[in-house]
Recover the amino acids of this structure.
């Protein structure tokens, strides 16, 4: 896989306070990389260093092989980005805004502008002033602006902020398409965990300026042991039975149900035992652990979540 | 270059720009109407020579009692001019023509300065307050080039405004006062009166008066780039533009260093038409001082703008 973005020991200090502490990771072409962390963890600061809005105190960032520090113009040429909200010149039309950015990159024809406008579905309104646009339309215009010059890397800071569920879904599908079909590397930051889970291939979790974990989303979700909820009557008797075949901490009884931890293979056996003991079973089902639990678990171990 | 086109488009896509141009045009139009309706038709006075002689005698008497070398010099200039008129038979009661009107409208350069200061002050600061600075600086263009393009557009804008002032004044003047051939301008230098072509006199005076505009606009631009606040830039620049002269005159009475202040040097016409604000100042001195200030303003704005972390 081609490495498009590479951060090595990137550190940011402001007034001697370390905001970002030696972060390193790579992003490959064709993948969606999620940048996850609680508010104030340093997501936005890292993204600002990536696009050259903030200076890097030490370490370096390479984009398409060019250093952001020493060769800014060549490095940033490969980037399309929205940093926080997609703020545009409100007194100009959407089309004039795109032309403005096209003049700054070069090699963007008016056919390309029309093509990208069509792509984000703004053809009807593109000649109207941006101040008449809804937030969702501004997001689309922001996306158009970022994609205009066919970048290798698309960086979106909180792209689903303020969008309705349909809009979120649309953006998600669109980003997946860009990564698969155009082989673009997409970096997305968010604190919306469920969102990241559905969108990203890999997720880097950042906290207090440190990268604590980079994981493949599929791997995070696949574990040998899973939790199951069992609804049965009489509950106390079922608990006694289950205690015999599971260790103490893997069986928890609550008022209406029992939670057990175990592998999938054990489940038929458990059901058999309960039936043998004449216990009435109403429900046995797996609890799919969301990324959110996982996230809190990871960050919780290493200092409180902000 | 695309960047310059961009900045120009951003100025002229805003309504405020047209309002400012409208105000300028209205002011010129209003002045011409005021002048044309006030009856200043001077009946051809055949006794103007004796009148000027009487004036001169009065002024010669008062010159001794006048305090300050500056004021004395001003009176000497008036006397010399009157004498020259008597000698060469040039009546002071000239017909008021378009050219005289353009000369009167030179006062509006301060208004032009006001307008360009407002534009210069918004140039960088607005990008920050709109939030568009983020999308502007992530293009493959160095920050130096971006700031330079903005400054160039500020200069182009002020030039366009000056040209507009000149042209509107000319048109209004031609309509209301007619296009007579201007009589020569009487310039005063080293105690002598020299005749000058009036149009050349106008153009040089416009340019000389615009140096103040250039300096204060550059200052507003610097404050805008360094402090990201357009209201601060407008406030400080306009205050100094209007009050700078007075402050310098006050300080100059007490302190020698007043001549190093920006305001003591911006008005270069003082070397051609009257006497310097602070004694001992020369044209070369002022030009060097202005140049130093100009460089300082730019070093500050570029240095801060390039170094800055954009967190807005």
């Amino acid at each position: 896989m081609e490495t498009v973005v590479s951060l090595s020991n990137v550190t940011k200090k402001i007034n001697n306070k370390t905001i970002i502490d030696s972060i390193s990771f790579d992003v490959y072409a064709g993948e969606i990389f999620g940048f996850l962390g609680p508010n104030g963890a340093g997501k936005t600061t890292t993204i600002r260093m990536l696009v050259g809005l903030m200076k890097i105190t030490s370490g370096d960032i390479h984009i398409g092989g060019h250093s952001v520090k020493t060769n800014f113009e060549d490095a940033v040429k490969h980037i399309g980005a929205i940093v926080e909200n997609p703020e545009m010149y409100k007194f100009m039309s959407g089309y004039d805004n795109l032309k403005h950015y096209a003049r700054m990159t070069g090699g963007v024809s008016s056919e390309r502008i029309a093509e990208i406008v069509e792509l984000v579905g703004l053809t009807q309104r593109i000649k109207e002033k941006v101040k008449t646009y809804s937030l969702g339309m501004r997001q689309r215009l922001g996306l158009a602006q970022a994609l205009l010059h066919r970048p290798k890397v698309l960086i979106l800071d909180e792209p689903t902020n303020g969008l309705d569920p349909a809009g979120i879904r649309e953006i998600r599908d669109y980003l997946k398409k860009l990564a698969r079909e155009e082989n673009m590397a997409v970096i997305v930051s968010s604190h919306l965990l469920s969102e990241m889970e559905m969108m990203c291939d890999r997720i880097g979790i950042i906290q207090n300026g440190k990268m604590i974990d980079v994981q493949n989303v599929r791997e995070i979700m696949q574990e040998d042991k899973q939790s199951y909820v069992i609804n049965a009557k009489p509950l106390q008797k079922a608990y006694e039975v289950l205690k015999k075949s599971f260790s103490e901490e893997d069986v928890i009884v609550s008022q209406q149900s029992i939670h057990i931890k175990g592998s999938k293979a054990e489940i038929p056996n458990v059901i058999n035992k309960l039936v043998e003991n004449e216990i009435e079973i109403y429900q046995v089902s797996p609890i799919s652990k969301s990324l959110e639990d996982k996230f809190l678990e990871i960050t919780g171990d290493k200092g409180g979540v902000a | 270059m695309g960047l310059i086109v961009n900045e120009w488009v951003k100025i002229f896509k805003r309504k405020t720009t047209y309002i400012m141009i409208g105000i300028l045009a209205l002011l010129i139009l209003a002045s011409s109407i005021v002048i044309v309706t006030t009856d200043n038709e001077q009946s051809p006075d055949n006794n103007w020579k004796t009148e000027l002689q009487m004036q001169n005698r009065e002024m010669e008497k008062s010159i001794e009692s006048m305090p300050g070398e500056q004021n004395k010099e001003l009176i000497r200039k008036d006397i010399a001019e009157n004498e020259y008129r008597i000698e060469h038979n040039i009546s002071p009661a000239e017909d008021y023509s378009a050219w005289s009107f353009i000369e009167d409208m030179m006062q509006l350069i301060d208004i032009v300065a006001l307008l360009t200061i407002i534009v210069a002050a918004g140039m960088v600061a607005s990008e920050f307050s709109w939030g568009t600075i983020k999308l502007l600086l992530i293009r493959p263009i160095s920050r130096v080039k971006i700031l330079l393009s903005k400054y160039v557009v500020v200069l182009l804008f002020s030039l366009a405004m000056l040209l507009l002032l000149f042209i509107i004044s000319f048109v209004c003047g031609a309509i209301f006062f007619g296009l007579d051939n201007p009589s020569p301008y009487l310039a005063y230098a080293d105690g002598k009166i020299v005749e000058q072509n009036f149009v050349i006199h106008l153009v040089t005076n416009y340019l000389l008066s615009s140096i103040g505009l250039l300096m204060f606009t550059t200052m507003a631009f610097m404050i805008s780039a360094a402090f990201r606040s357009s209201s601060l830039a407008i406030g400080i620049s306009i205050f100094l533009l209007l009050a700078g002269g007075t402050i310098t005159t006050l300080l100059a009475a007490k302190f020698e260093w007043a001549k190093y202040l920006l305001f003591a040097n911006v008005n270069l016409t003082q070397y051609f038409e009257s006497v310097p604000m602070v004694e001992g100042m020369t044209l070369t001195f002022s030009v060097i001082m202005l140049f130093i200030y100009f460089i300082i303003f730019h070093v500050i704005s570029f240095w801060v703008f390039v170094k800055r972390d954009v967190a807005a």
